[in-house]
TrEMBL record, chains A, B:
Keywords: Transferase. Residues 312-458 form the Acetyl-CoA hydrolase/transferase C-terminal domain. It comes from the Archaea. Belongs to the acetyl-CoA hydrolase/transferase family. This is Succinyl-CoA:acetate CoA-transferase. One of its GO terms (biological process) is acetate metabolic process. SUPFAM superfamilies: NagB/RpiA/CoA transferase-like (SSF100950). PANTHER family: ACETYL-COA HYDROLASE. It comes from Halopenitus malekzadehii. Pfam families: AcetylCoA_hyd_C, AcetylCoA_hydro. GO terms for molecular function: acetate CoA-transferase activity; acetyl-CoA hydrolase activity.
Amino acid sequence: MRDRITGDPPRLSATEAAREVGDDDTLLVSGFGSVGYPKVVPLALAESDRDRSLTVVSGGSVGPEIDDALVEAGALERRFPYQARATSQAAINDGRVAFHDRNISTLGDEVLYGDLADGDVAIIEALAVGPDWLIPTTSIGQTPAFVENADRLIVEVNRTVPRDVRAFHDVYRTGRPPNREPIPLRDPGGRIGTDRVTFAPESLVGVVESDRRDQPYEFRDPTADDRAIADALRTFLEAEVERSPLFRDSLRIQFGVGSLGNALMGALGEADLGDRELIYFGEVIQDGLLDLLDDGDLATASATSLALSAEGQDRLFEHVDRYAEDIVLRPADLSNSPTLIDRFGVVAVNSALEVDLFGHVNSTHVNGTRVLNGVGGSGDFNRNAALTVLALPATAADGDISRIVPMTPHVDHTEHDIDVVVTEQGVADLRGASPRETATALIENCAHPAYRDDLHEYLERGERRGGHIPHDIETALDWHVDR
Amino acid sequence: MRDRITGDPPRLSATEAAREVGDDDTLLVSGFGSVGYPKVVPLALAESDRDRSLTVVSGGSVGPEIDDALVEAGALERRFPYQARATSQAAINDGRVAFHDRNISTLGDEVLYGDLADGDVAIIEALAVGPDWLIPTTSIGQTPAFVENADRLIVEVNRTVPRDVRAFHDVYRTGRPPNREPIPLRDPGGRIGTDRVTFAPESLVGVVESDRRDQPYEFRDPTADDRAIADALRTFLEAEVERSPLFRDSLRIQFGVGSLGNALMGALGEADLGDRELIYFGEVIQDGLLDLLDDGDLATASATSLALSAEGQDRLFEHVDRYAEDIVLRPADLSNSPTLIDRFGVVAVNSALEVDLFGHVNSTHVNGTRVLNGVGGSGDFNRNAALTVLALPATAADGDISRIVPMTPHVDHTEHDIDVVVTEQGVADLRGASPRETATALIENCAHPAYRDDLHEYLERGERRGGHIPHDIETALDWHVDR
């Protein structure tokens, strides 16, 4: 294989590459889980003195070179679909940047068919590039769809990422409707593709060298609540794998991104699963999974991103060969594929801001108005999993806010998609429950004791009003007014 | 093939069969789109003088023999997941019957794995039955999963349905996670199964003869609003098939159940689709589709139910052979399969009660409290379609209520799932729009003129509050208080 450019395309400096970007262009950038995104070209775009109104589409979250620098430069007009930086969030909530939030699994298609945005330039971080191929770095995300859709392609070759990281990659394309073929993946750790993404040679505008590293994750130490949630989840799962025929031989599981998710992954190592294999089928590889692999508690892990701490990166990069036996990175439309999540019978474990008495979940908008990151892949997993668990602390703001509320002012996941709620207080199994039963279980098993009386009072008020979902519409959002 | 019972299982009268049902049993009944459900055994259950607390699970809506008679007899304690009768709705909204609403596509799995309910007795309407097989009548729904899960099976053989209706059936089973195979269906009209459902011979308790016909649908004549919505949808689709590469050769489409859906189907015959084939991939076959087939405007239709008017039934039953070339009935987990909807690039067209300024849709709960039918398959199609259209009149109650509201008090489909809204006022294309842009487009293109000023005022109030979704939480639900 060639992994150096021998003739065309031209090598460009970041500044030269930035000149190839039109002032109002739509940029499709690699990156997922804040890793594997382009860095030096976005910085050069931010530093140029042109008056730009860019649209930036990423597969998932990216780093400060995009969501801080471009925002601060006033160069970002529109942003899809997920971002996790305070700077971009402030700009979106001020109305300075237009934002549109989408589910991860279908984003590539929506770009590819011009439904969401038509890509002018794809800017992709790669380990290596050839005339019609590139090898992604630490995430794959929507890179295959993005290079297929964009008119022009700029590749940032990042030499700080070990070349053998390619051993994780399994890039497979599903073809286009109406002749899209079934995905031939037979097990979560299987491989059906190659290590590279192909593109039309004529689209390649230039290659830029980059030496900027991904900004590593920082996980906080697990709190007492994290540990209590993890214990409750572990106890529930130990009983569930005994009960359900779906888990006779193995438990396939996904956890959401972040410190709580990482802590939950860690706790799974202590679970008594009998002889069952533990398999991860999710979006991101976090440090907790490396621990499980090191301890021999995890058979295989499939994701689209290596979202690790600095320590985790070092550990992985030093032993790529060993980890590559058990870790696979796929494009995000496969890591989050509704049909793969269904076929493998995955248990989804995700967190949220709040859940209401009838099982509706707000995972994105504080008080229904101020967006945080975006829905990400939580919708893909919550909807299609064999079993969907919502794991969250019962309160926020040091106990001043209950995360169990009468009505959420924003809904990302409906009552139809949530099976079980776990807080540090306990577990509410909502399967087959009527709304009244759901409310009672959430109040008694999951809400913090300090809020139970108020929640019971709301439920009684609703019951006097009547209806299948006994809301008292007049006071339903009182907990969110002037919060 | 045998289509008469020759020895065991015993033939039972309906009353004898009802005696085989325990007082607190969970019944899994055939039926979808109010057809193909068991009739004489449920009536006998309602007429018996036992004190029953039954749970009834159906694949979709069923008729008065279940959702009126069992409710009126006080024999129904719990009901999953979709019902469309005034009697059952009243009982659910009064809290007399516990109800839990699920998406159609995964209901069979949820029953099969004991997540929702464990079936004691499956009561299935059939054209014919043998020692380990039965042939469904006018719907397939969740019958395969139900007979697999239930301990005991009672079959109602209905002689009023022509035997050759079996020519429509294509029963295929997907296997169980984690070894569930990809669905090998390659085109919407293809066939991969057989005409029959198999079961464990020892589960068959008895066979009951039935001569009760399905209660046929009654469609109202299209209103002026229906026609205006259909015109707006047709114009939009004519442009969209030209624009999108997904529709180069064909348009695959689904319509929701009901008079509006039926009227929209009809209008599609007048659309100028160039040389493209028109293909239906949805839940139910309604009369409008027969018209399109008769006129040569429709190539093929795939569904799980023949939800026809009396005239439509007569037309179909007289020419089963001719229609069976183009119509296929599948189990509901295939008719509504997320991956098939995705792979075929289906355009979903569904209605709802109301939509809010930011694209969230309430399709089930009047004022957030009183349930109508249930979410049905609308979630399966809205989430997984290549293009999702919400089609509804701008107002209800003779114009007294706007269906475009500041905030819906119940959410079945989120902003992430709705691409385009069509009312008789016009079309709002929400793809790639920020919440502010969504609100403006809905007000100006879709809301009834009488409500535009009030909606603008709400939006301005929200914008003064700020945030990505500019709600004014304090007044967000004012339109729903004491309605």
